[in-house]
Write a structure and sequence with these properties.
With 212 residues, the protein is of the alpha/beta class. It folds into 2 domains: 29-179, Neutral Protease Domain 2 (Neutral Protease, domain 2, Orthogonal Bundle); 180-212. The protein is built from 6 helices and 5 strands, in the order E-E-H-E-H-E-E-H-H-H-H. Strands 1-2-3-5-4 form a 5-stranded mixed β-sheet. Helix 1 packs across helix 4 (133-152) and helix 4 crosses helix 5 (165-175). The termini are far apart.
Length: 212
C-alpha cells in the first residue's frame, strides 16, 4: 500500500514498485547530498534551494523526534507538472487509470519522496498554500516521517498495512507538528458530530424496535 500525500494519505491494497526509476520523459537535474539525492527539472531550478532547505530541516526534525537517524540515503523527485506526477504514480501502481486529486501533492516511502512542484500548486492546488512556508515545511517533514517509517519497516512501501494506516499517518501528523490547535478543534468537532449521529441512530433503532 502506498501513501499519496497530501495532508492526507490515499491508501491502496495493490502492490507497487517504488524502487523503479522515475519518469525518463523529464530531463532531470541531479544534486547529490550526503543523506539524499534530489532530482528536478530546469523550470524548478529557482525553487530547488527552498526544497533542499526544507528537506534538510525536515530530516533534522524527524531524527530529533525519533532520536535515531535515517537508515540510508533516499531520493527526492520534484515533478514539474501534475501530468508527470500522475504518470509516475500510474507506473508505481501499475494502473494507468490513476489521476491524482487536486489536493495530492506529495508521497513518501522508504526509498523516495515525490513532490509536485510548488509552482504548480499556485495554479491548480486548492488545499495547500505554496506561499505558506511554515505549512510547506510541515508537509515536507510529514512526508519525511513516512520515508523514515518505510526505512525501518520490513515492508518499505507499506504494502498490505492498511489496518495500520491510522497509526502510520497519525505519527506523521504528530511528529511533523501538524497537530495544531486548529486541527485538534476540527477533530473534536467531527468526533462530536459522529457521537451525535450515533446517539440519534441508537434512538431511532430503539424506537423502531418498539414498533416491532
Amino acid at each position: 500500500m502506498r501513501k499519496v500525500y497530501v495532508t492526507l494519505l490515499l491508501w491502496s491494497c495493490c502492490s507497487i514498485c517504488f524502487g523503479q526509476k522515475a519518469s525518463s520523459r523529464i530531463d532531470w537535474i541531479k544534486n547529490d547530498y550526503p543523506s539524499f539525492d534530489i532530482f528536478y527539472s530546469a523550470q524548478d531550478s529557482s525553487i530547488s534551494p527552498l526544497i533542499i532547505e526544507m528537506i534538510n530541516e525536515g530530516q533534522k526534525q524527524v531524527t530529533d523526534f525519533f532520536e535515531h537517524p535515517f537508515k540510508h540515503k533516499f531520493s527526492v523527485y520534484v515533478f514539474p507538472s501534475r501530468h508527470d506526477l500522475d504518470l509516475q504514480w500510474q507506473h508505481d501502481y501499475g494502473d494507468t487509470s490513476i489521476h491524482s486529486e487536486c489536493w495530492m501533492v506529495a508521497s513518501g516511502v522508504g526509498d523516495v519522496l515525490q513532490i509536485l512542484s510548488q509552482q504548480v500548486w499556485k495554479n491548480e492546488e486548492y488545499e495547500h498554500n505554496a506561499d505558506d512556508t511554515a505549512a510547506m515545511q510541515k508537509l515536507a517533514t510529514h512526508e519525511l516521517v513516512h520515508v523514515y517509517q518505510g526505512q525501518y519497516n520490513p515492508i518499505h512501501d507499506f504494502t498490505g498495512l492498511d489496518s495500520l494506516a491510522w497509526f502510520i499517518e497519525g505519527v506523521a501528523v504528530y511528529a511533523s507538528g501538524q497537530l495544531n490547535k486548529t486541527r485538534m478543534q476540527q477533530v473534536k468537532f467531527k468526533l462530536l458530530c459522529f457521537l451525535i449521529q450515533s446517539q440519534a441512530f441508537c434512538m431511532f433503532a430503539r424506537n423502531l424496535k418498539s414498533f416491532a
